[in-house]
Amino acid sequence: MSxxxxxxxxxxxxxxxAVVIKFIFIDNPSYYEDYNSKIEALNLKIDSLHSENDxxxxxxDSLNNEISELDAILISSKNTINRIKNETDKALDAAxxxxxSELDKFFADRYRFLLSDTTRDSSxxxx
Length: 127
Prior knowledge:
The protein is built from four helices and no strands. The protein is mostly helical and 127 residues long.
């Protein structure tokens, strides 16, 4: 009986060995061709995505440069606004410190030419 068991075990081992050899060593070309074509398609998609990514990085760099330039312009404009504000504040402080007589004299001197008769043309008639 042990002889029959040994033969059965050998047959089972031989069948398992044949199955393992078939799956490991015998190629199935259609199986590999299908997966190889899918892998190649994925590689092409990856390459196109890398190309698109490079374009986006270039665009991002140019936009960052433009932002930097606009920031510089903004800072310059803020500085100009602050300078003008400070000058205006100084002028307003000076105007607030004028007395009534100083203001009258200032405006009289400044706009005297509007009220003088010497500036009018003699050919103009009174209407």
